[in-house]
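Minutes, project check-in
Item: structure for the 491-residue chain
Input as provided by the requester:
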Amino acid sequence: MRRSLRRYRPAGGPVAWLVAAGTLYAVAALVLSRHNPLGWDETVYVSQVDPRLPPAEFGSPRARGMSVLVAPLVVLTGSVTALRGYLALLSAVLLVLAYGVWLRLRRDGVPRSVPAVALLLLSTLWVTLFYGPSAMPNLWVAVAGVAATGLLLHHVEVGRGRADLLGVAAALAAAAVVRPTDAVYLAAPLGLAVLAVRSWRSRARLGALVGGVALGWLPWVVEAQIRYDGLLPRLRRAAVAQSTSERFDPVVHLRALDGPILCRPCPAATHPLPLDGVLWWAAGVALVVVGVVAAHRRGHTAYAALPAFAAACFAGVYLVSVAYGAPRFLLPAYALAAIPAAGGLVAVVAAARPLVWRLLVLVAIAALLALHVSAQVSTLRDIERVNERSAAQYAVLARALNAAGVRPPCLTVGQYAVPAGYPAGCESKKVRDRPGDEPFGVADLQRAVRTRSVALVQSRRDPVPAWAAGWRRLPLPAEARPSWAVYVAPR
């Protein structure tokens, strides 16, 4: 019996199981998120390539990669459901390919089911199901991180070949095109590992890591020279745009695990620690540790240790340096940590003997996984309902703007210019109020007022800027009146 268990392999092989896991993810993501309206950041990325509407304000921290990624569909149709389907399918294919890289690692004793289980574990998280079909960069960085780490390990294993190093460079370049700083956070731990392990040291490997990031940064640097007079001014402006006055909270990201998608601010009084979040984080860490130990016992420590180290470094940057919570920030860490966690889960099942105990362990894991998935889907539904309410409120603002004569060609400015202006058919801008800010100043605004309708959309509590003194305050519907104030410029 023991010999037969040791020889057992899943029917269909590891590639079939990986494809099945990717298919389940694609179907679940599309079914659960197909009616989810565009969010604020998505509006910015999509509007850059939407031929039907003017572009929204594109701030200094953002990169153009996401706009390029959605362009093939957006130029054809403005359907949000079609966009969700396109991104769900594309992310599923790329996740299968990224985790499929790990099947190339020919290491005796390493379970071939680990990549499929890793993808399955990643797919159980609401943050994956929400952002996979979304026009947001974080899951695409996660895909690049998984692929780059696996390709680097394969090059170490084989000891030669340009294809793997070209793949590493391409993956990191792709990550940098959609989110430049995250590519650095991915490449840094891989570079440290190459330097730390004597047998791994190679100029070619370091060159692939550095060269890939540099290549991906190139479009962002060129745009910095054109729009911000250089890279350093843009970096300073991006840091200002991303900073808050909040006190650092070491568990801020844990508070945001069950929503909202942006916990800024995220006080303990209104966002207590979610029990299910604490439990699955604890379970995930435990599985990662078990996976690393199991890989070490088989003599293949790097298979689990390298992705665990890369995940810990990536998560550490956000946990330590960012004073507000956004669950999407940690998606690349989750995708990398899923590999040793899957190894740990497989090791727990394999260690259960005799067969009856193994069956009991499998039943217990299935029951716990079902509870976990149920909690994650419930969280996803809550977040989507909040997103739908926000989109409906911004639609009310857009209708009020159109009714007041603010119609295309038009311009919206102010804190809520993007989400209110896009459905109204208006271009949106941020008016420069400090050196190094977005390159649209008061003089540009005054010229715009002479040629098109302009409206200021801001919080009801905020004071009216000096440049909007004398603008007419627009009466708003009852549902919008408590939150926002709209001022229309005289023509």
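Outcome recorded: The CA atoms of residues 6 and 350 lie 9 Å apart.
No further action items on this chain.
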